[in-house]
Design brief:
The complex is a heterodimer. Chain A has no helices and 11 strands. By secondary structure, chain A is mainly beta. In chain A, strands 2, 4, 5, 6, 9, 10 and 11 form a 7-stranded mixed sheet that branches. In chain A, strands 1-3-8-7 form a 4-stranded antiparallel sheet, with no helix packed on it. Chain B is mostly beta strands. Classes of the chains: A mainly beta, B mainly beta. Chains A and B meet through strand 5 and strand 10 of A and strand 6 and strand 10 of B.
């Protein structure tokens, strides 16, 4: 069974540009969550999508957005990049969401974004 | 307030010795608690969880965790550490607040170094 796949694995952008990251969840998983990981802040929750609907959102500015497609694949977009957006962006999938969420998430290997 | 704390940024232990990585939590109601591990340049992997039942939970790679309700702790343990256990360990608790869709609240992580 294929795991969670994130693309691209590494990318370098300059300030002001925008970036789109992709996540393909495990087959049958309908929930996709996105996290930003930095050495100083740890794991910061960005948002969660379930059945193409955003179920939860973290405390990030509107420059960070996401969506989910009917096949459960998800993308996140960051516009007007800032130096502080440099981070590892992790995607996690699970079968369910909300009250039935047992908390066991399956993570991809991440997309490492460097903003110059 | 719902929160989780990992009081140690780094833990060092000699190979073959027992290891403990600490986690304390604060939640309303009964906690759902989790441990994840992150190896270098990889995504997070689920280790174990506590939802209900026995206070001692056994997980992957020989790890176990002890739920202590009176001390609001969920420390991760292993009887005999391996060099390959060197990684970043995250504790998480499910957010039970209404409207937060049961997302996970994460600790900042503890870096475990097992010395040969």
């Amino acid at each position: 069974k294929a795991g969670v796949t994130q693309t691209p694995r590494y990318l370098i952008k300059t300030r002001g540009q925008q970036v789109t990251l992709s996540c393909s969840p495990i087959s049958g998983h309908r929930s996709v969550s996105w996290y930003q990981q930095t050495p100083g802040q740890g794991l910061q929750f960005l948002f969660e999508y379930f059945s193409e609907t955003q179920r939860n959102k973290g405390n990030f500015p509107g420059r960070f957005s996401g969506r989910q497609f009917s096949n459960s694949r998800s993308e996140m977009n960051v516009s007007t990049l800032e130096l502080g957006d440099s981070a590892l962006y992790l995607c996690a999938s699970s079968k369910t969401s909300g009250d039935t969420n047992t908390g066991e998430l399956f993570f991809g290997e991440g997309s490492r974004l460097t903003v110059l | 307030a719902q929160s989780v704390a990992q009081p140690e940024d780094q833990v060092n232990v000699a190979e073959g010795n027992p290891l403990t990585v600490k986690c304390t939590y604060s939640v309303s109601g009964n906690p759902y608690l989790f441990w994840y591990v992150q190896y270098p340049n990889r995504g997070l992997q689920f280790l174990l969880k506590y939802i209900t039942g026995d206070n001692l939970v056994k997980g992957s790679y020989g790890f176990e965790a002890e739920f202590n309700k009176s001390q609001t702790s969920f420390h991760l343990k292993k009887p005999s550490a391996l060099v390959s256990d060197s990684a970043l360990y995250f504790c998480a608790v499910r957010d039970e607040r209404t409207g937060n869709n049961r997302k996970l609240i994460w600790g900042l992580g503890t870096s475990l170094a097992v010395n040969p």
